[in-house]
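pinging the channel bc i need a second pair of eyes. not urgent but kinda urgent?? the chain im working w is below, pasted from the shared doc
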Amino acid sequence: MDCFAFSKKFTKFAFKSYKKEKMKDLNRLKVVLAEKKRTNKWLAEQLGKNVTTSKWCTNSSQSDLQTLDKIAELLECDTRVLITSKYATEL
């Protein structure tokens, strides 16, 4: 592997790692479900969804804002609590 190819792969890896680390702070759904003693299976049943909720909990995809509002309502918390740890004390 030449130097350029290595550099390109390393940059891509570093960006993915950075992005993953930053996303951890943005989606607190898994944490809030645990704090409320609920599971993503329970959430899926409440929303009438299937495996999508596990993707939301692992940050592979995100729900739309209307669904996020519904989740906050079901978990009896502020929507902001589901997005960032800055508002975690408002649980």
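so The longest helix spans residues 3-26. and The two ends are 51 Å apart (CA to CA). — does that match what u expected or am i reading it wrong
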